[in-house]
Amino acid sequence: MSGKKLTFKEFLKKKDIEVSAKRYGIDALGAMAQGLFASLLIGTIIATIGEQAHIDLLVSIGGFAKQAAGPAMAAAIAYALKAPPLVLFSMIAVGGAANSLGGAGGPLAVLVIAIIASELGKLVSKETKIDIIVTPAVTICAGVLLSMWWAPAIGRAASALGSAIMWATELQPFLMGIIVSVIVGIALTLPISSAAICAALGLTGLAGGAAVAGCCAQMIGFAVMSFKENRVGGLFAQGIGTSMLQMGNIVRNPKIWIPPIVASAITGPLATCVFKMQMNGAAVASGMGTCGLVGQIGVYTGWVSDVAAGTKAAITGMDWAGMILICFVLPAVITLLVAAPMRKAGAIKENDLKLDL
């Protein structure tokens, strides 16, 4: 290849730029969720602990963590796109700009702009003798200019869509409870990030509660349904880890997905219509389910915030009963009730749910 001019396709391959749904829709989106976990989400949890325990230091720590959400998301996305160090570090400024200018829909603005800025930075990386100036300059200028140009519109669009979903859920809690619960639950088990989707749309309120229900139905459902094959290790790996572990088995036998989906279709409207369970904590927690109990912590922090704001009188026994039933008990019971006749009929066979743990 010495002395031979590279074609554009070869140049992109050399720069490890892969324009694909997997790279941008799965890898980048999943990394964005991790960036959110390591900033906004953990910051919210730390701050809430500080507020409840009256420890101002923890409140301050949590506040600083939450402020780093934009840079953390952008850096995580660049890392997933295999950006070189100068591009990766330059994304901190880009993420701050995109998240700030994107407003309530900032996470989606960060996702779109960070992908473009990272790839542009990779294009020029190590192509000049003054790489230490050119690469960060191109990355930051492109990212910040795009943030100024696009982020407000992207943010408004994401916020409007999220608001429309939440408004529709308030208007039709039964139907939307089913739709939101099933779709977000499915997204959680697929190799995409339900948490990032909820964060990008700012999905809170009743719709957020339905999303939590759907995610819990998938995680707890698969955990208990596969206990025969995977025992305690599988129970914890799926129940507080992720139901995504079952994706390979789902591809081999899609019927194993039916019981958790049915569970989410039932618990979603129960959450919205009966228990009025809302996610008024960080929107990213709406798509977490029982993963590290983040969904439940998010619901709890929402209760605490509502009580502090005077919009909720107190945390009641009904609140706790609703959370326990929707997040743990009903997903387990419903999934087992649906799976039992399917196993008897041979639709779900021995070891169809077996994981390599």
Structure description:
- The protein has 357 residues and is an all-alpha fold.
- It has 2 domains: 8-158, no CATH class; 172-345, no CATH class.
- Helix content is 75%, strand content 0%.
- The protein has helices spanning 8-14, 21-53, 56-67, 69-80, 85-101, 106-124, 131-171, 173-189, 194-201, 205-225, 227-239, 247-252, 258-274, 294-309, 317-345.
- Helix 2 runs antiparallel to helix 4 (69-80), helix 6 (106-124) crosses helix 9 and helix 8 runs antiparallel to helix 13 (258-274).
Q: Tell me the total number of β-strands.
A: 0
Strand content: under 5%
Uncertain regions: pLDDT < 50 for 5+ in a row?
Answer: none
Portion of residues in helices? over 70%
Give the averaged pLDDT, no decimals: 93
As a whole number of angstroms, the C-alpha radius of gyration is 22 Å
By helix and strand content, what is the structural category?
mainly alpha
Helix tally equals 15
Q: What number of structural domains do the residues give?
A: 2
| SSE string, helices as H and strands as E | HHHHHHHHHHHHHHH
Q: What does the largest sheet look like?
A: none
For the record, give the distance between the C-alpha atoms at the N and C termini, rounded to a whole number.
45 Å
Shape type:
globular
